[in-house]
Amino acid sequence: MTIVEKFISDIEKTKKYARQNKPGFSGYESIKKDIQSLFERSTSCPTDLPHSLFEYWENAYIYTASDLSWEPEAANCERLAAMLALMEDSDEYFDTLSDKDWQEIGQLVNYEAEDLPVDILQSMMSVLVSKGAY
Questions:
Q1: Which DSSP category does 89 fall into?
Q2: For residues 61-94, b (16+ Cβ closer than 10 Å) or e, as one string?
């Protein structure tokens, strides 16, 4: 199992546990911190980039959903997993991200570029160029 697959599995476990065991479960807001922490811990990227990517994902896909009680749905989990894959030099779930996503991710990477290790930055830039982010 890859890091990205484990991440998706852990999100599903978090959602299931919260729905079964948290009294007063109120949807996404009840698990937001758990998912954010899981995302940020799952990557070896040492900067604020994971936090920035999470915020972008949340604003673009979660808070625009019609019913937060069922978020994050599988498609949105896969989008977040694709962002994790980018930071972990993998290509899993890249097809779930739109051209607009790639452009926004490119801007976020540019913002953090000076603090990123060279090998991680080179890997991400290669993908971003191939996806038309620049």
A1: T
A2: bbeeeeeeeebbeeebbbbbbbbbbbbbebebbb
CA distances in angstroms from 131 to 75, 91, 118, listed in the order given: 20, 11, 20
Q: How confident is the model at residue 79 (pLDDT cuts 50, 70, 90)?
A: very high
Question: Which amino acid, residue 130?
Answer: S
* pTM strictly above 0.90: yes
Q: Which of 76, 10, 74 is nearest to 40 (CA)?
A: 10
Going from the C-alpha of 130 to that of each of 61, 77, 93, 99, 127, the distances in angstroms are: 23, 23, 15, 11, 5
For residue 74 the two structure tokens come to 């599988």
- Residue owning tokens 């604003």: 59
